[in-house]
Specification:
- By secondary structure, the chain is mainly alpha-helical.
- It folds into two domains: 79 residues, Orthogonal Bundle (Arc Repressor Mutant, subunit A); 155 residues, Four Helix Bundle (Hemerythrin (Met), subunit A).
- The protein has ten helices and five strands; from the N terminus they run H-H-E-H-H-E-E-E-H-H-H-H-H-H-E.
- The strands form two sheets. A three-stranded antiparallel β-sheet has the order 1-3-2.
- A hairpin with a 3-residue loop joins strand 2 and strand 3.
- Helix 5 packs antiparallel against helix 10 and helix 6 packs antiparallel against helix 7.
- The longest helix is centred in the middle third of the chain and has 25 residues.
Length: 243
């Protein structure tokens, strides 16, 4: 079974020596991205230990990693929970994400090598395969890998680090959005994302800096606007109107 298939079914794999923290991380992350642990859910350490048959040490290591990625919050003497999404926080995120996407796409168009083009294309094709198989977790992961490959191609370590941080924060946004679409709407969203990835790659491989920035803005906007409308609707269960 592939890692993507494991995450989709979210059946914890048999532990090998030293990989306990990764097993716990994959399990909890998969539960959150599949909305089986929705906003406000408390994560009971004892239940995770019992469910996965591991000691507390790898569970706590995984929880710390998930907290640094913003998927959970750890409150001393209050426990662990999945945080809600606040409208102002999400809107600010999209503003920062668009600026960063434009910058990294500009630099990738300017500095990317043929090897960089191949890496970006590889992740684009992996995303397309995930779309074809309708594997939401794989789509989230391959989308993240695609954009991080573009950032690395720009040869700016600081911007790459910032992009990685922002991409980690998109995990719940992507998953929540995809899962709440009708099959028809989801197909259109996925196909549009695939097309926009292709437009980004075309501009980058052509060293078209202006075209790459424009494609980056279009890509962010096509997800941002309907997502913010969704957050303002009564159907947004993971949304908190106040930050």
């Amino acid at each position: 079974m592939t890692r993507e298939a494991e995450l989709k079914s979210n059946k914890p794999r048999k532990a090998r020596r030293g990989d306990g923290p990764q097993i716990v991380y994959d399990y909890i992350r998969g539960e959150i991205l599949a909305s089986r642990m929705p906003a406000g859910s408390r994560i009971e350490e004892n239940l995770i230990v019992s469910r996965l048959g591991l000691s507390r040490t790898p569970v706590r290591q995984a929880l710390m990693r998930l907290a640094t990625e913003g998927l959970i919050e750890i409150h001393p003497n209050q426990g662990v929970r999945v945080p809600p999404l606040a409208f102002e926080e999400v809107r600010g995120f999209f503003e920062a994400f668009e600026y960063l996407m434009r910058a990294t796409s500009f630099l990738a168009a300017k500095y990317a090598t043929a090897d960089d083009h191949e890496e970006i294309r590889f992740h684009q094709e992996a995303f397309d395969a995930a779309v074809e198989s309708k594997d939401i977790v794989a789509m989230v992961d391959t989308n993240q890998a695609f954009h991080l490959a573009i950032a690395r191609a720009g040869r700016n370590k600081d911007l790459t680090r910032f992009m990685n941080d922002l991409l980690l924060r998109t995990l719940r946004l992507d998953s929540m959005w995809y899962q709440r679409q009708s099959p028809e709407d989801a197909t259109r969203v996925f196909q549009r994302s695939s097309h926009e990835h292709g437009e980004l790659l075309v501009a980058i491989t052509a060293s078209d800096t202006a075209g790459a920035m424009a494609a980056a803005s279009i890509h962010v906007t096509s997800f941002r606007n309907p997502f913010l409308r969704y957050l303002q609707s009564s159907d947004a269960a993971d949304f908190s109107p106040q930050s």
